[in-house]
């Protein structure tokens, strides 16, 4: 491989032009990791999408957002990761014309598919916070129409981000992307921390009632643990990538920075694999819908939507109604 060759000299958008910055060993490992992740990511998110769309009781704002996120994660597994692997393989085989074509195609796919996911994840965190803060007013304040309008807005934003990416001719554009990601992460962490605080307040207000099966301390603890898992997953998958693109924006590209970029990008894709697993394991309604889709149950048995079963906003409303009754009675 000619290390002095400039990669994709006719391409005006900012990209790595120095082949020496790509480490072959890292490239092989990255291809293997993404190849292993792509298949289950696609299957799990497809199953999550079908589970929500085929279950009328799940056609509510909170689940519509989860479904939208699953669509973007599905796109990562079925399109973004395969294109990324193909691009890396073409580089390793010194097929540079194919590499340049896949670089442009992969960038379009990645920005159109992944950009909305940041908006959606942020919206989910805000949705969880509003469900606790607004309590019984939540259902009238947020509807499916509002969610669909927001999702349309995210697609417009994705188009703008993609256009800006191809207009950018310097790594400095990454500083803008990093600033946006930092804003999103700040909103996400803030909303989840406020949600945790609100849940702890509910835990104090609602006494334990173990005998009749009503809300108790352990049920609240389960929801708190779920929110902590969400925040931990987001920080683990997002923060390293944001840190690397900030570093590249400030200091420029180098072999070490490009290796870090490839590793943290794979971490970002890992989030698309973890999201459906987390939702299936922690949300009872989604687990039941999945069982029904797989043919293991003829119908759903959604009973007693208590806070111990899920962290869906509808449950928070029921819980807060219980709190209000306790406080006034």
From TrEMBL:
Residue ranges crossing the lipid bilayer per the database entry: 27-50, 62-85, 105-126, 147-166, 172-193, 227-251, 257-278
Keyword Secreted: no
Topological relation to the membrane, as annotated: Multi-pass membrane protein
A single GO cellular-component term on record: plasma membrane
Gene Ontology MF annotations: G protein-coupled receptor activity
Pfam families the record matches: 7tm_1
Keyword Cell membrane applies: yes
PANTHER family referenced in this protein's UniProt entry, alphabetically: G-PROTEIN COUPLED RECEPTOR
Protein name: Adenosine receptor A3-like isoform X2
Origin: domain of life: Eukaryota
